[in-house]
Amino acid sequence: MRPLFFRDLSIPIGMGALAATTLASAIGVASLAQAGPKDVNVYSGRHYNTDKQLYAEFTRRTGIRVNLLEGKDDELIQRLRSEGSKSKADLLVLVDAARVYRAQELGLFQTIRSAELNKDVPANLRDPAGRWFALTRRARPVMVNPALVNPKLIRTYADLSRSELKGKLCLRNRASVYNQSLTADELVRRGKPATQQWIKGMVANVKEPLFTSDTPMLRAVGLGQCGAAIANQYYLARMLRGDNRADRAAAAKVKVVWPNPTHINITAGGVTNSARNPEGARKLLEFLASPSSGEGYASANDEYPLKGWGNNPTLKAFGTFKASSVSMEQLGRRNREAVELMAQAGWK
Amino acid sequence: MQTAATSPAAASAPPPRASRWILVGGVVLVSLLALAPLLSLLGGALFGEGPGGLALGVDGVEQMRGTLLLVAGEGFIGAILGTAIGWLTAVCRFPGRRWLRIAQLVPMAFPAYLLAASLIDWASYRGLRIHGLGWAVLLLTLANYSYVFLLSTESFSVSGRRLLEASRSLGVGPWPSFFRVALPIALPSIGAGVALSAMEVVNELGAVRLLGVPSLSAGILDRWQVDGNPQGAALLSLAALAIVALLITGERLLRQRSRRWNLEGRDAAEHVWQLRGWRALLAQLVTALPPLCALAIPVLWVQQGWQALAAESIGELAQLASRSLGLALLATGLTGMGALLLAICRRWSPQPFVQQLSFLAGLGYAIPGSVLALGLIVLGGPLGFSPVLLLLWGYGDRFMAVSKQGLDAGLERIPPSIDETAASLGCNWQGVLRRIHLPLLRGPLLVGSLLVFVDVVKELPITLALRPFDFDTLAVRVFQYASDERVGAAMAPALLIMALGLVAALALVPTLERRD
């Protein structure tokens, strides 16, 4: 028998050594960045490099270091829930009111009192009980290709069920939380029968199959395959500002039509129930919601600040709109009902 | 499932008692580690708090149907494609065969979610809709047929060459030889490959979501995380588990029916079928098309938006890559050792419970990564385990089956008479392992390790859920960009994942070449 064994072993040993060194260096970096009772640990559903610059600015001003764990919102909620009181997270930042409300219902946030937050965050954009506060606003207008659909036809979301749009309307699927919140908005403003009628009308107009994301849908609008679609404004802004020529050309053909009122949603944050540094987390929240840094936090993703329209030139070109007055808390509260209604009315 | 009677050497030459108990203890330990998160989950789901609801519902039925269709479609096409390519490249000769054989390793490096995301992205610029079950089956087959190819080609090259020779000298043509001799011998390996790829399909999340196909994996996550209904999620998990158990059992049955111990020298390699003319052309076409398609998708995608690469920070990419690499290497080592222990013990220990435990230890492959991760959080949180340790535990649990499947198939090709001879000459199981099994298992061990390595580099849900603060990997970064619909920005880390996978896949080339 050939003495293969030792040759065999050299591979795993070599691999092990390599693995140990790379991982040790990686963990070393990570553990250096951890510890410190004065740090604020953030679980965030946002993933923008410019966020890190803002956190760095916060550290420079206050001396409080920010450790970041970015993930998908639902996953972070579940992680925080499973970790319970052992969780290291101090601040939870989530996108979309429905998810924020879900986290609130699971008891993941603690109530905080802050005159600053109450001043900077409009009342309909925060929890009445003070458990979470909006940090940015996003809108979900109608995106129209004027070559196919006359923009004047659409004054409200209800107009999307008009028969003129038959075969021209493109929608994202029911699983999209953005559509769920939009439906909840309609539900609060117009009641169940009208909302059901509206969905049925849109489903009759829709061009199958439904999309699983907004950006390909906007490209389809730009390329003339869809006449109208409902999408968040920042996806279009991103295409317009991006470095891809084909995207810029497609986006240039898309006109933003603001329904009256327009559905808006939020990115929001709250101090976790298990926070070890609730003070630091509150300060970070105040910092992010303040008008000076809030502008940066919003424009990182082409979103709107909490008040006004901000200075983002791409967004300014879209024009202004009348935002729906439905509170974020209501959007969350009615989410389950909205999803059920969507399923009943045939929104796939 | 294997029974005591079929366990080879144990009856005639049992290894010394004490050392055998070490083996059994090891198996119990590994299996407990593998099963603990599942049990904690099941307990939490059935007895935990939260709104209940065990009804499958309309959605549940749709999701079950989606997954079954995906598994059936991918399994069928993947089995035919993988076996055909395995056969053509192992025992036929045609121009370009060597390169085309190596090329089969390329699709392995490309995770299905990346193929789906980049294809959808690329096509949407051209007004093409990539959507639905058909595309899902196609992309999943492309991403996973290599499992069947690798295991079947290995079997075609190693086993039954002499039988093939005999059948050929008796005037049996290539096709009958294939169907009557080579295929039955290779069936266990093909079955193992199909089972592995089908399990990947059961678990696939990103691709099926992007393509809008309802699936159990997405259903489990949604019920758990969005609806806050752990019981419902556990029910769907059980459905997924049942599909996988069925797959594994089917594979076992296949293997038992066609058990032929085979150990031949590599001297028979010169007897091959020369393909000429249109036959050679067809062979080239069949073997070239899948890797070309798999390669074309990312290449077209990069060509579409390479500008995004300019904005990348090299230092950060290097850090992400080193984490991915380190985790993958560690996980590969751990998984390999665990799988070897399970496989060896199955061979030596006739006790049915050992057989069953080692079967159960592979079930982690069936659980969607995110669910497994939750189980680990529930389990490891109170114990204060470090996240990296939990992460490795998760990888080991998830990918044990990948390593083990190949080893089991490899061990079954070694006739028990060899173990018996060695034992009767005074060799204990360690000796047999060192001097006989390990050298003979080099191939499967290497193949298994590389598959695990590539799988860990591509792995997303467990990493996403368990990693500590400021500890992103390549796959995590890709996911974050892609979930923000900034697919273009995900390009650099995505390419690095593919590159790491390619390097690992190309490490298999010498194994493939040695068979020639």
Write the layout of secondary structure elements.
The complex is a heterodimer of chains A (348) and B (516).
Chain A: H1 4-32, E1 40-44, H2 49-62, E2 66-70, H3 73-83, E3 91-95, H4 97-105, H5 115-120, E4 133-139, E5 142-144, E6 169-170, H6 177-190, H7 192-205, H8 214-222, E7 228-230, H9 233-241, H10 245-252, E8 255-257, E9 264-271, H11 278-289, H12 291-299, H13 313-318, H14 328-333, H15 335-345
Parallel strand pairs in A: 1-2, 1-3, 6-7
Antiparallel strand pairs in A: 3-9, 4-9, 5-7, 5-8
Chain B: H1 17-47, H2 57-91, E1 92-93, H3 97-103, H4 112-125, H5 133-158, H6 161-169, H7 174-203, H8 206-210, H9 216-226, H10 230-257, E2 273-274, H11 277-305, H12 314-348, H13 352-360, H14 369-383, H15 387-413, H16 416-424, H17 429-458, H18 461-466, H19 474-483, H20 491-506, H21 509-514
Parallel strand pairs in B: 1-2
Helix pairs in contact in B: 1-10, 1-12, 1-13, 1-14, 2-3, 2-5, 2-7, 2-9, 3-11, 4-11, 5-7, 6-7, 7-10, 7-15, 9-10, 12-15, 12-17, 12-20, 14-15, 15-17, 17-20, 19-20
Description:
- The complex is a heterodimer of chains A (348) and B (516).
- With 348 residues, chain A is α/β, with parallel strands linked by helices.
- Chain A is 48% helix and 12% strand.
- Chain A has helices at 4-32, 49-62, 73-83, 97-105, 115-120, 177-190, 192-205, 214-222, 233-241, 245-252, 278-289, 291-299, 313-318, 328-333, 335-345; strands at 40-44, 66-70, 91-95, 133-139, 142-144, 169-170, 228-230, 255-257, 264-271.
- Mean pLDDT of chain A is 90; it is low at 1-12 and 28-35.
- Chain B has 21 helices and two strands.
- In chain B, helix 2 runs antiparallel to helix 7 (174-203).
- Mean pLDDT of chain B is 83; it is low at 1-13.
Number of helices of chain A: 15
CATH architecture of the largest domain in chain A: 3-Layer(aba) Sandwich
> Termini distance of chain B?
33 Å
- Going by CATH, the homologous superfamily of the largest domain in chain A would be Periplasmic binding protein-like II
Strands of the largest sheet of chain B, in order across it? Answer: 1-2
Envelope shape of chain A = globular
The mean pLDDT of chain A is 90
Principal-axis shape of chain B: globular
